[in-house]
Amino acid sequence: MYKIIDMDKLALLVHEEQSKGKRFVMPIGTFNPARRHHYELFREAAESGIVTVAMNSDPSLSVYRNGNGRNDRIFPFDYRAELVSRSPHVTHITAFDDPKAVRAIETILPDEIWKGPDYALGTIDQDERRKAEELGIKICFGSGCPKDPVNLKTWLEDYMNWLYPTGAF
Hints:
alpha/beta; 5-stranded parallel sheet; 6 helices; 5 strands; 17% strand
């Protein structure tokens, strides 16, 4: 079910397909976990090209670990990837092991990178921004995501409605 592909293999595929005129767009993030506004971002990005998600691997999130060495607030990569893969707009998912997506950007060379509208040029990771600008990659921001953090109750309601669209829960 997963659409996970190794970053270097994905880069070869993307470059080959770009040479045939296809466009690739790359939402970047943790997607912890993927929820309604992420799916809106994927849908919106798909209007510009083939959606290839670059997602933080578990090791890349070690900076968020608590004092016990566990990361209680971040779901495991496989779980996050499974939820992202459920979007019909996502074609590929790749993981990056660094805390920042700079290597993913320079390896895959998408036509666009995407972040949610709660970001702006001044608030996205500036190393990622500089790399994209250096390589001529367009930086896009979705418009369908909420500006405020989604609280757990809202997220659970959205998730259950997504899992059970008929309200069967």
